[in-house]
Amino acid sequence: MSEADPPLPAEASGRASSRRPAVIAAAGFLWLLACIWVVHQGGITPAPDSTASLIGLAVIVLESLPLLAAWWLGAAGFGFALRQRGVAQVGVGMAVLLLLQYLAGYVVGYAGAISWGLCVVGVALLVVQVVIAQRSKADELADTQRMHWLSPWWLLGIPGVAMLIVAACCPPGTMWQVEAMGYDVTSYHLQIPREWVAAAKMVELEHNVYAYLPGLMESAYASLMTMRGGDPVGSVYLCQLFHASFALLAAAGVASLLKSYVSESSAAVGGALVLLVPWVIVTGSLAYNEMVVVAFAAVGLSLVAGSAHPCGRTGLSIGLLAGAATLAKLTAAFTVALPLGAVLMWRLLKDRPIRQTIAPTVLCVVVGFAALSPYLARNAAWTGNPVFPFAGSVMGYAHWDEARAERWDAAHMLDQPMGERISSIWRQALGNTGYGALGGAPTPKETKNIARFEREGGVPVFWLAALAGVICAGINRKTRWLAAVLAVVLVGQFVWWLSMTHLQSRFLVVTIVPLCVGTGLLVGKLDGRKLSSSITAGGVIAVLVGLPLTLAALITTWSQATQLATFDGQRVTAPLWFLVDGLPAPHGMNTMQDLELNDLPPGSKVMVVGNNQSLFYMQPEIEYASAFDPSPITAKLSGDVTPAQLVQRLRADGITHLWLGYSELDRLHATYGFDDGVTSTRLHRLVQDWTHVGSPTSPTVLMVVPD
Question: For this UniProt entry, what's an example GO CC term (predicted)?
Fold first, then answer.
């Protein structure tokens, strides 16, 4: 072959490079299937009688994919309309789509045609982008900073994706003891959307104070329910998978930021680690709102701290992300919105004269408040107080009184000296299982702070790697500013957590973004140091951090399922294959089919007192209230009521049955407080002669109101 001939090795290299995406995608898919098998089966060997569950998992995922695709492709389209590209295009576009669905639910109402229509508009915009790209012969869709997501190091995060998928396919109420078995999901995150869907609109719910929180994700869940034909219970897995999918956006956001400072491989490691953090698995697989906050924080940080110089479009995008994050969870105002706004101003002042920083900053603030305005206007219309149930002493208590507002405030803030608060950093953050700490001591039992893992105070491998990365980045001139940003963001998030919360470990989940960026920087710093011909120090660090996180997440996932009773009276942790697709639940699962009240005759009306654990699964007409609202039975107990008078008052309102949670009433009185006249002792005295449906010795009993 002459020297003029094209060099074959280069051609071969080009062909190999073109095949690289397909090879990595195929390897990732096979690795995902293998990980799903292990997580679902509880090991490598197949569990007996698990085939139906595995098929059920596959059906759930396949049925959910079209709706998930509609949302995410639609989001990409709206992001294109705002002239964003890559990860930012999807993240900012999703903020827009969520806001549009929220506004539609409040102003117009919830209907499948509306929810589908908004998604279709976004998809149409994406099609326009594809057509433009083809006509200009510029493959914009593939040009996301050389597609850093193609690195084989993304395979490190696949076990986390498998855990998210399997756990999200378990019914709410069957997973995560550390989160009270998803109590918040069945009592308000999905219960409120269920009531909004029934009303066909976002309406005021005086009996559930959580309906007055912004509710961006609750509105999204209502939209998803309407897209599935208005079937709330049949949409639970879809809602959980939708929330879990934001973990992928968070991982991509972290990698996108890192790609401006380190190699593709190191960026992929930082992104993959997001998917392995136990708290991400726990919160991400539930129909919560945490992953939206984490995802928008990651995308926002990639926009303001990445390689591109901020401009007016950046200010617009940060305002949308900050506003949407706060609309998803109010605490994001302090953990996401303020940090992103501060970093944006810092970056603008760093790169340009002061006069050129005004327009992007003002645009960010205006757009952020505009995103919040539907929530503020809604609450003002409902209660006269735009931020109810907060600031009652200034803006009014609405249907509450001062004592009830004080009880709400006391429940959401621990009265502790700052010294004791600072000491909680070790057990709730650094040495917490939720952040991958290994080992530790058994956790003491509490009645109020029940959101604690079985062990605390372990070796903080993840935190140590992240902090080492921030320190190393601070030494290097190229990454010094990013290190300062990460340090300031972390300190700010901890100051908020220590001073304004009741110190739940979960509330620090947004710190995962700077932690994973810091770890990615450490891997990048050591990536060039070869320990052998094929092993680098950075790769070793990636494995040394990723493996403990994977083990901690897997142990947490397998050990945090519901407890089942055996024939000999023992309690055992249910295997995941037993829980997956478990809505038609066997006895003891505390889901829809295990509730005696769902077998009541047509026309029954149940008053729920004390235990709201299974609200979402209750099929008859019910009257209930959140733990902070006036109990529906409080007015019926006014005065020195007799058993006969109580029966008369209940029957006058059409109440045929009473669902009474004795133990939960006792717990609430001992912790957050409850209506003074509603105690288990008094209620037991009044209803002791009533007929029980089911076991009269259960913690929660169902009784027939006498004729």
Answer: plasma membrane
Which residue type sits at 426?
A: W
Contact partners, residue 692, CB within 8 Å, separation at least 6: 701, 702, 703, 704
Distance in angstroms (rounded) separating the CA atoms of residues 240 and 232: 12
pLDDT score for 142: 47
The residue type found at 101 is Q
**Could you report how far apart the first and last alpha carbons of the chain are, in Å?**
101
Is cis: bond before 360, omega within 30 of 0? no
Spans of all domains in the chain: 290-385, 595-704
Find where tokens 């949670």 sit. 661
Q: What is the pLDDT of residue 658?
A: 95
Q: Which residues contact 27 (CB under 8 A, 6 or more apart)?
A: 152, 155
pLDDT of res. 73? 98
3-state SS of 635-672 is HHHCCCCCHHHHHHHHHHCCCCEEEEEHHHHHHHHHCC
Angle at 105 between CA 101 and CA 107, to 5 degrees: 115
What per-residue confidence (pLDDT) applies to 566?
A: 72
Amino acid at 24: I
Q: Three-state SS for 441? A: strand
Contact 516, 488 (CB under 8 A): no
| Three-state SS sequence of 371-405 | HHHHHHHHHHHHHCCCCCCCCHHHHCCCCCCHHHH
Q: Would you call 170 helix, strand, or coil by DSSP?
A: coil
- pTM value > 0.85: yes
Closest CA to 216 of 234, 179, 189: 189
Q: Which residues of the chain have pLDDT under 50?
A: 1-6, 8, 10-13, 140-148, 586-587
Taking the C-alpha atoms of residue 213 and residue 204, their distance in angstroms, rounded to an integer, is 11
